[in-house]
C-alpha cells in the first residue's frame, strides 16, 4: 500500500457524521477532524447560542454543517435530532455517542433524580440513537458507531459510583452489537478518554493539588486535550478502521495501567 492510498482511506467526503454534544470539548474536536476530512457535520447541544456560534464558525471554514438543539434526556430529544439530521444533511453514516451527563456523588449521596438524568442521557439515549441511525447504515452496508467511554469504567473514583456504571453499561451495549450484529460494513467501537482538559474538568484541574494527584497516575506526565481524541476517532470512523470492530481504545496517556 502506498502512502497516498493509506492517507486516502481517512477521507470522509460524501459522509454525514453525527457527534452528539459537539459544540465543545471532545465532541467539538472530533467533529472538526471529521469536517477537515470531508464529512458534513452537526453542531448539537442543548444550548442555542452554542449551536449558532458553531454553525457560524464551521460554515465560515467552508464546511457543510447543520445545527440542532436537542436535549437527549427529554422524551423527544432523540427523535428531534434524528429528524433534524435527515432533513438538513441526509442519512447519517457515522454516529458518535459523545454527549453524557456526569453527576459526581459518592454512593451514599446518589439520588433518584441524579440516577434518572444520567440514565436517560447515557443509556436511554444511546438505545434510541442506535435504533434511529443504525438501520440505514446496515441497509447501505457502511456505517460507524463510536461511543465515547470513560477511564472511570476501569479506574472509578468514589464520586463517580453511578456515572461509571452507566458508562460501563454503554460500553457493554456497543460490544454486544459488535459481536452480534454482524453487519459487514458497519463497525461498533469505544474510545475511552482519560483525564482530558475539557470545560467539564477545567475547574477541578485548576486546583494544583488535584492536578498533581491526577498526574501521578498518568505515565506520559500530562493532562490530555480534546484534540488528542480526534485522530483516534477519525481512524475508527473511516475506511482506515474498517477492520476494527469491538475495540475499546484508551486515549489516556496510560492512566488505566
TrEMBL record:
Its EC number is 1.1.1.-. Pfam families: adh_short_C2. The keyword Nucleotide-binding does not apply. Coiled coil: none annotated. The keyword Oxidoreductase applies. GO terms for molecular function: oxidoreductase activity. This is SDR family NAD(P)-dependent oxidoreductase. It comes from Steroidobacter flavus.
Amino acid at each position: 500500500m502506498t502512502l497516498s492510498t493509506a492517507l486516502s482511506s481517512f477521507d470522509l467526503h460524501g459522509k454525514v457524521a453525527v457527534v452528539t454534544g459537539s459544540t465543545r470539548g471532545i465532541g467539538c474536536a472530533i467533529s472538526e477532524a471529521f469536517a477537515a476530512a470531508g464529512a458534513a457535520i452537526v453542531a448539537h447541544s442543548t444550548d442555542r447560542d452554542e449551536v449558532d456560534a458553531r454553525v457560524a464558525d464551521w460554515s465560515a471554514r467552508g464546511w457543510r454543517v447543520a445545527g440542532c438543539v436537542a436535549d437527549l434526556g427529554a422524551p423527544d430529544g432523540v427523535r428531534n435530532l434524528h429528524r433534524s439530521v435527515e432533513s438538513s444533511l441526509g442519512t447519517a453514516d457515522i454516529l458518535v455517542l459523545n454527549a453524557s451527563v456526569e453527576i459526581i456523588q459518592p454512593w451514599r449521596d446518589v439520588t433518584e433524580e441524579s440516577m434518572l438524568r444520567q440514565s436517560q442521557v447515557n443509556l436511554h439515549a444511546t438505545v434510541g440513537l442506535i435504533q434511529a441511525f443504525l438501520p440505514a447504515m446496515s441497509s447501505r452496508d457502511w456505517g460507524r458507531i463510536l461511543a465515547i467511554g470513560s477511564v472511570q469504567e476501569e479506574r472509578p473514583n468514589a464520586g463517580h459510583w453511578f456515572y461509571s456504571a452507566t458508562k460501563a453499561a454503554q460500553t457493554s451495549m456497543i460490544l454486544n452489537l459488535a459481536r452480534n450484529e454482524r453487519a459487514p460494513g458497519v463497525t461498533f467501537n469505544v474510545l475511552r478518554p482519560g483525564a482530558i482538559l475539557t470545560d467539564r474538568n477545567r475547574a477541578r484541574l485548576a486546583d494544583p493539588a488535584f492536578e498533581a494527584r491526577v498526574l501521578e497516575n498518568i505515565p506520559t506526565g500530562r493532562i490530555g486535550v480534546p484534540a488528542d481524541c480526534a485522530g483516534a476517532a477519525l481512524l475508527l470512523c473511516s475506511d482506515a478502521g474498517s477492520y476494527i470492530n469491538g475495540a475499546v481504545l484508551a486515549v489516556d496517556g496510560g492512566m488505566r495501567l
